[in-house]
Task: structure prediction
Amino acid sequence: MIIRKVAIWAGIVPVALGATLFAACGGDDDGGGGGGGSGSDEDYVAAICKAGLNFSKDLEEVFKDPESLADEDKAMEKLADIFEDFANDFAKAKPPADLKEWHSEASQQLKDGVKQIKDGDLESGIFAGDTPFPEPPAEAGERLQKAAESNEDCQEADFAFTE
Result:
């Protein structure tokens, strides 16, 4: 069933965001990269965690009501909308300088995943087992995790930037 594949991928996104996305160590507290970034670590973490928490809540809401999934076409539309909202919220986050390129690539991969859902292509790309995100810079994870420890959305979503 197509919905099952989307649900499996829905479970992968938050895990990938938390464990794979920023799996890194080391770094400094100033956003790395020596300036030029448009966002602080704290603002970036807040935006990503809020997007992740909203995504999780939206998915939980859809899967609470099995009848809402009875019509596969309508269910896929709902799921595509949830993924699209997440992809858009993720893309709007303003990364620190050392994450600008990575963030852009990850945002594009999320948008590609949304397109796959809308096109009904659940056999290739992210649905074929590919990681939904490119590898991030090596020095970002621990620094962002420090910012996440005091963020309520990160705590509620049980979201971490390191393994």
